[in-house]
Every structure is written in C-alpha cells, then in structure tokens.
Design goal:
The chain has 128 residues and is mainly alpha-helical. The chain has 5 helices and no strands.
Length: 128
C-alpha cells in the first residue's frame, strides 16, 4: 500500500513540477493555461488535495468507504469531462448537482473525519 500511495503522490509531483517546468523551459513561447482549466480543473485538483488531508490525520490509513468515495469522485469527474467534450445539454444539470449536493456532502464528510481524528489524538503530556 505504501508503494501505491508513494507512486500516486510522486507521479503528481513529478508531472506538475518536472514535466510542466521542462515544457515551459523548452517551449519557444510561454505556455497558455486554458480558461476552462483555471475555472474547473485546477479547483478540482485543489479540492482533491484538501480531501486527502484527513487521511494524514487518521494515521495515514484509507478506510474502504474513503476508497469508494475517491473512486466515486473520479467517476463523476470523468463523466463531467465527457459531458463537456460532447457538449451535452445535461452538462449544466450535472454541474449544478455536483456543486449543490456533492460539494456540501464532501465538506461535511471532511469535517466529521477531521473531528474524529482530532478527538482520537491523545493530549500532550506535560514534562516535569
């Protein structure tokens, strides 16, 4: 499991820093970030990074339900990308449902997980 988590985190760091950095250095002109990426993709990446924070608080373990949750988020993100690429009329309804249902549910889940993790943390012992 440690190798899998290390591969995921290491791959993301490598892709963001090395691949993007080298691409910018090699390119004869500046790289342009599409507006769509700034409005959707980057906030999603940030949200996923924040969603991983409780995992660090819970002793670096991922429960089965958290794994299903992350898999569900991945499926929803992929569906959204397909709807955007095909210019589906249901794209707006899907985005609205994600924003008003999934996002608040995620925030509540993160807060509960964080609260449980902090409650389990033993109080520091005072030195004599």
């Amino acid at each position: 499991r440690d190798i899998a988590v290390g591969n995921v985190v290491g791959s993301n760091v490598f892709n963001l820093l090395v691949v993007l950095g080298l691409s910018t250095l090699i390119s004869p002109q500046s790289l342009v970030v599409p507006v769509e990426a700034m409005r959707f993709d980057i906030p999603v990446m940030t949200a996923v990074a924040v969603a991983c924070l409780p995992i660090f608080f819970t002793g670096s373990t991922i429960a089965r339900w958290e794994g299903f949750l992350f898999l569900g988020y991945y499926v929803a993100y992929t569906i959204y990308l397909v709807l955007v690429a095909t210019q589906s009329p249901s794209q707006a309804a899907f985005a609205t449902a994600m924003f008003w249902f999934v996002m608040p549910l995620t925030v509540v889940t993160l807060m509960i997980t964080l609260w449980r993790a902090l409650r389990k943390t033993p109080a520091p012992v005072a030195a004599s």
